[in-house]
Design goal:
The complex is a heterodimer. Chain A is an all-alpha fold. Chain A contains four helices and no strands. Chain B contains four helices and no strands. The chains are: A mainly alpha, B mainly alpha.
Chain lengths: 122, 128
């Protein structure tokens, strides 16, 4: 455990840096998420009314959507990084990239729609 | 490149012998990453109940308050805490910070992770 970790051959320094920085931001957002959902909420989980009330604050809506974007980018870059360990051919890697971008984009659009829908119900 | 994983030799990935602590840190990071990614997708799908209204969502919340779901939830928290703390070490080491102390940093951070997980477990299961 002496050598500094470095970007992998196919990962590229841009994606690698993005993974590191999104990861560090997620630690902050996830801390808030865990505290709100597991420590502050009575009984450990928010009810529907609690969630709607929580989403009435526009800062929370922006924070939750930003959190979703960070998590999706970080986890899908991480998943790609794990798949690179399987030495995919350039063709397979192109398919992997395409699938991850599509699923990631759908997840973000769906999550943002859900957050805005809940916020509108106050 | 001798330490690069080889897909042709994948059964070796599951052999824990002759591994350094750093390798266990790496494995822990990968396994928690896969678990958390799977959970992220399940979480988004489950939260779709919110769009269906109060009855659907509160019914779902009542379901996940049973001990089996709570155990699953604790596993997710454990994976998040381990991945997050180990990730801080990786981020720092990536920029050359604390590389000489990464073994002791790993041990300390994992000890902190055990305490945080124990705290959440106590909190979650003592609430009934």
């Amino acid at each position: 455990m002496r050598e500094p970790l470095s970007p992998k051959r196919l990962e590229g320094s841009g994606r690698w840096l993005l993974k590191i920085f999104t990861g560090l931001l997620i630690v902050v957002f996830l801390g808030i998420h865990f505290i709100v959902n597991h420590l502050v909420a009575p009984g450990g989980l928010l009810t529907y009314a609690d969630v709607v009330a929580y989403f009435q604050n526009p800062i929370i809506v922006v924070m939750e959507i930003s959190f979703l974007v960070l998590v999706v980018v970080h986890s899908f870059l991480g998943l790609r990084s794990i798949l690179l360990d399987l030495d995919p051919s350039p063709m397979v890697l192109r398919v992997v990239n395409f699938v991850l971008v599509i699923i990631g984009t759908v997840a973000v659009i769906y999550g943002a729609w859900l957050a805005l829908t809940i916020a509108s119900r106050g | 490149m001798s330490n690069q994983p080889q897909s042709a030799n994948w059964p070796r990935w599951f052999d824990p012998r002759s591994r350094s602590l750093g390798t266990f840190g790496f494995i822990l990071n990968r396994v928690t990453a896969l678990g958390l990614t799977l959970y992220l997708l399940m979480h988004l799908i489950a939260l779709g109940q919110l769009a269906k209204g109060a009855d659907a969502y509160d019914g779902f919340i009542a379901l996940v308050k049973n001990p089996l779901f709570k155990l699953g939830e604790l596993l997710v928290i454990a994976a998040g805490v381990i991945h997050g703390l180990n990730g801080i070490r990786i981020a720092l080491n990536s920029f050359g910070v604390g590389v000489r102390y990464q073994k002791s940093t790993f041990i300390v951070l994992m000890a902190v992770a055990v305490l945080v997980i124990a705290f959440f477990a106590f909190k979650m299961f003592s609430e009934g």
